[in-house]
Each structure stands twice: as C-alpha cells, then as structure tokens.
Amino acid sequence: EEVEAIFAQQEADKAYYKRTAEEERRQKEEAKAREEEERRQKEEERRQKEQALEQAREARIKLARLLLRTGMSAKDAALEAGLSEEELKKME
Known about the structure:
- By secondary structure, the chain is mainly alpha-helical.
- It is built from three helices and no strands.
- Helix 1 (2-69) runs antiparallel to helix 2 (74-81) and helix 2 (74-81) crosses helix 3 (85-91).
- The radius of gyration is 33 Å and the shape is rod-shaped.
- The termini are far apart.
C-alpha cells in the first residue's frame, strides 16, 4: 500500500512537472509572438515614414520645377521648395 502511494505521488509529480513545462513553453511562444509582432509593426511604421518622406520630397521637386518654368531663378526656386541648389541642379 505504501509503495502504491509512492508510485501515485511520483505519477502526480510527473504530471505536475509536465504541465509546468508546457505552460513555460506556451508562455515563451507567446512572448516570441509578441516580440515578432512588435518588430513587424516597427518595420511597417519605418516603411510608412520613408514613403511619406519620399512623397514630400517628390512634391518639393514638382514645386521647384514649376517655379523654374515660371521664370524664377534656380536659387529662389530651391529656397522656396526647400531644396538645396545642388538638388535642383541634379534635376535639370
């Protein structure tokens, strides 16, 4: 009877450790998934920011070209559009 009690306790201990290990594994997987989602979101935010910056740059270039066509000097067009004169010369 005592041997059966010891055996039953050992089985209960095994089951407990198995549940504990499974819970730890699940928690690690969830943490890894959260980290991956955060990384994905940061990458998406970075991509959107780069896209917005590129669109703003393109708008400045269009403005500078329009100003040049109206007869404005390259220096004034660059200042007005927020570009450097070097950037403006590259466009020409």
